[in-house]
Amino acid sequence: MKNAMSVFSLNVASTVVNATDNILISSMISTLIAGSYSTYLLIIMSVQQVVYTLKTSVLASVGNLCANGEYEKKREVFWNLSFAIYGVNTIVSACFLTLLTPFIMLWAGESYVLSQLVVLFLVINYFLRGLQWPVEVFYNAEGLYKYFRFKPWIQVALNIIFSVILGLKIGILGIVMGTTLSEICTTFWYDIYITNKYSLKGKITDYWKKTIVNILLSWTAILISCVVSSRISGEGIWGLFIKGGVTSILAGILFIIFHMNTVEMRYMFNLLKNSVRRK
Question: What's the alpha-carbon Rg for the chain, to the nearest Å?
Fold first, then answer.
């Protein structure tokens, strides 16, 4: 029963956070801005669901691995999975920053456009959630739901508090930043703490050192690719395709260069070589 309630809390809380943001924007700012926010969020969540299939596709394999209880192997798989997610999120986040606003202007019109600073924090929120996917795979595979009974609702409460306080001061940007802060204060550190304690059993300091470096490298690649693509002139649908191509290719190349000497990159290269040979 406790596990069932925990699963319910985990599934419902993220929806409640998004709904709360919409309600706060509508009541504190305007329904027009809330409509703009919903348009951006719809696109981000649609892409997020596609990327989310990566998580569900490996859940069964990780479940078998967790049943064997080989901690070193679990940590190896965890970091390889995290590395793949970092790569995907780096490219997707760069494309969001470059293409979201031009696409909204083309699709819905200029009246639905939000400031680029708000878009930045929407992308940061997407990126932070993406960091948790490998963690979620492992705590789902281990069935660690009972440790998450109250965390989602604490996050919801913090989101409301932060968003109201900041929203009154700086508008929609404050509400979006409130979501960022509530994520950092709860999910960002608590999920890996529980997963590491009961599943991976590694040094938590090693996780944070590696994670901080990976975040900095990812965002360096994201920002460089966005700056380069912003210099490209082009309007309409073809302009979006050209900018999207340049952004995704450059972000991917930079990600590979930055991680060239890592164990995870060598693993990916070997995986690619083996798959090519089999064909």
Answer: 20
